[in-house]
Design goal:
Number of helices: 22
EC number: 6.3.2.2
Structural class: alpha+beta
Radius of gyration: 24 Å
Pfam families: GCS
Catalytic activity: L-cysteine + L-glutamate + ATP = gamma-L-glutamyl-L-cysteine + ADP + phosphate + H(+)
Pathway: Sulfur metabolism; glutathione biosynthesis; glutathione from L-cysteine and L-glutamate: step 1/2
Largest sheet: 9 strands, mixed
Oligomer: single chain
InterPro entries: GCS, Gln_synth/guanido_kin_cat_dom
């Protein structure tokens, strides 16, 4: 565990010099969809290996021609053989031009991928493919699910999985460790003509190929639910992730903690996945699907049997929401980490013996209650002072809403925080808008020493509420009432409103204009603990329930809203009018999603299906509906189809985005 040795911490001034530059990036995942226009059939293309080889050659040639690689995007494999992941060629900095280059960079990556696909193939940013796992043909080429030797699935073939040894081994070992196939059940959206009770006629109830085949009829498949049984249903989903490099370990821990309560809020705002295995589900998000798809816990670990062979009862799947706050600063009261989070006591003590504080040691020891799922024989014996592969083997298979990422060994890369809850959006404008929102919020949080702590149990409840159908209109979410640390003045100088311009006076109290920075930065001083401060009130008095509109846009003079705080932070930056307009366009999308004047992708998709001429109001998404939906989404992304209730035309396409 050598990589966790924190070493000699730098003094504040030295740390500031070393990490003052903000570096951050995004990851966008695509599904490659192939279109048969004659038969009105949209299928998943399983050409990932061939496509990535072509893109790798192209990007290498581009880098060679330019003499550098920084501006050349990269494409990576993902779990599904129909998936591509893209990242910028180099991290964005904190400069305003870099912030405003995100959409152009995303468009460039999509266009680059599209250029080297077949004419009938399109890279689409859909969170879930509506007909993955339906009877018949949903991939190109077609493969029979009877050959699903890793997952033993009733619905999806072996060939949907990336052929690299890691992925089928993960799939098989999750099933073997669990002692059964994974069981994913989403409540079905009950429409006017949906049979009741709904017993899914597409499940091959009598199949008898693998030992787990009877599980569906033995209770794994629930009545009135959409049943799925393989890792591919979850890890075949696409998402939008952001990673921030912090100034130092303390700032990374602080940022991690303060983004934890934001994760379910962003999940609800980006809801984009109401269709599963050919049905309309009564949920809007992917999160519980992915969590169940990699749930390798044994019956003992799930609490179904007394502990005998297993070491712990484990409340959550290894894909789940965060269970512990990790900052050791004074704002993090122990009462906030209020749920059961088992940890390995031997690892906990070893870490403490080597100078790791108990809070961080517990986080790391909590990760290590999980077994490694994939072990390569060649990598068993490693020098942990020169390689962190052993740590990453566990870290990379603990998929949580936030990931705290220590520096790689012998690397200039620093302490990072990965924000993982958001659903990928159909258009690059939306993905850029939410990336811009989150990075600005992260700076506002640090700049104003905000305090967003609420109990983890309430964050978990928010995660459940975020996935419910039309959560923006139907749900309230727990959020902190006073978002500023004790002794920290509010930057808001006027009552909260729903305006789209900055509410703060850009002059200091003595009338001298504030110094404005041209770059967003790292290295914000930590909040100072007032000498007379000590926690007096119970934590139950610190939070309340708010609508998403209130959390984002404010609640009169009771709560400022996150957007108001972002605008206050923007007033500390030196921007020209054009830059302000562009940023306002992105933030306006978030504002209107939250207040309901723009619907989420999930609501738009559900409405599209229910208004389609071929829909029979029986909850079924047939081949024709799926084809027309994919065509419509692609046309919206390319700006040739309007959907004003979802994405007004004047917002969805900015001209001349860095020449892209």
């Amino acid at each position: 565990m050598g990589l966790l040795s924190l070493g000699t911490p730098l003094a504040w001034d030295d740390a500031k010099k070393a990490g003052d530059e903000l570096l951050w990036g995004d990851e966008v995942e695509y599904m490659v969809v192939t279109f048969d226009n004659g038969k009105k059939h949209a299928k998943l293309s399983l050409r990932q290996t061939e496509i990535l080889e072509k893109l790798q050659t192209i990007t290498n040639d581009m880098a060679s021609d330019r003499g550098e690689t920084d501006s050349v995007p990269t494409f990576h494999p993902e779990y599904g053989r129909f998936m591509l992941e893209s990242t910028p060629g180099s991290p964005y900095t904190g400069s305003i031009p870099d912030l405003l280059s995100v959409e152009g960079d995303m468009r460039y990556r999509r266009r680059l991928a599209r250029k080297y696909l077949k004419p009938h193939e399109i890279p689409m940013t859909m969170t879930s493919f509506p007909r993955l796992g339906t009877p018949g043909v949903f991939t190109e080429p077609y493969y029979d699910p009877a050959d699903a030797v890793s997952s033993h699935s009733l619905f999806v073939p072996e060939e949907i999985t990336n052929p690299h040894a890691r992925f089928p081994t993960l799939t098989a070992n999750i099933r073997r460790r669990r002692g059964s196939k994974v069981a994913i059940n989403l409540p079905l959206y009950i429409d006017d003509r949906t049979p009741r009770p709904f017993v899914d006629p597409t499940i091959p109830w009598q199949r008898n190929i693998y030992p787990e085949d009877p599980e569906a009829k033995q209770g794994a498949a629930l009545i009135d639910h959409v049943y799925m049984d393989a890792m591919g249903f979850g890890m075949g989903c696409s998402c939008l992730q952001l990673t921030f490099q912090a100034c130092n370990v303390a700032e990374a821990r602080r940022l991690y903690d303060l983004l934890v309560p934001v994760a379910p809020i962003m999940l609800a705002l980006t809801a984009a996945s109401p269709l599963w295995r050919g049905y309309i589900a009564d949920v809007d998000c992917r999160w519980d699907v992915v969590a169940a798809s990699v749930d390798d816990r044994t019956e003992e670990e799930r609490g179904l049997k007394p502990l005998k062979e297993s070491r712990f009862q484990i409340p959550k799947s290894r894909y789940g929401s965060v269970s512990l706050y990790i900052s050791d600063e004074w704002l993090n009261r122990p009462e906030y980490s209020d749920i059961e989070a088992p940890f390995d006591p031997a690892i906990f003590e070893r870490l403490k013996d080597h100078g790791i504080d108990p809070i961080l040691a517990k986080h790391m020891a909590h990760l290590f209650i999980r077994d490694p799922l994939v072990i390569f024989s060649e990598m068993i014996d490693q020098d942990d002072t020169t390689s962190n592969d052993h740590f990453e083997n566990i870290q990379s298979t603990n998929w949580q809403t936030l990931r705290f990422k220590p520096p790689p060994v012998n690397s200039p890369i620093g302490w990072r925080v990965e924000f993982r809850s958001m659903e990928v959006q159909p258009t690059d404008f939306e993905n850029a808008a939410f990336a811009v929102f989150v990075v600005l919020l992260s700076r506002a949080i640090l700049n104003y020493n905000m305090n967003l702590y609420i109990p983890i149990s309430k964050v978990d409840e928010n995660m459940a509420r975020a996935q419910r159908r039309d959560a923006i209109h139907t749900q309230k979410f727990y959020f902190r009432k006073d978002v500023f640390a004790p002794g920290q003045p509010s930057p808001i100088s006027t009552p909260a409103s729903s305006g789209t311009s900055s509410p703060i006076d850009p002059t200091a109290t003595n009338g001298i204009p504030l110094h404005k920075e041209r770059k967003m930065r790292n290295c914000f001083p930590p909040p100072l603990k007032p000498e007379t401060w000590h926690p007096q009130n119970p934590i139950e008095d610190e939070y309340d329930e708010y609508t998403l509109d209130e959390i984002i846009n404010g609640k009169n003079d009771h709560f400022p809203g996150l957007l108001k705080l972002i605008y206050a932070y923007l007033d500390t930056l030196d921007m020209c009018e054009h830059e302000q307009v562009r940023i306002t366009q992105y933030l306006d999308l978030v504002r209107r999603r939250a207040n309901g004047s723009l619907i989420t992708p999930a609501t738009w998709i559900r409405n599209f299906v229910r208004s389609h001429p071929a829909y029979k109001f029986d909850s079924v998404v047939n081949q024709e509906i799926n084809y027309d939906l994919m065509v419509a989404v692609d046309e919206i992304e390319r700006g040739i189809r309007e959907a004003p209730e979802f994405l007004p035309p004047h917002l969805c396409r900015n001209a001349d985005l860095n020449g892209i």
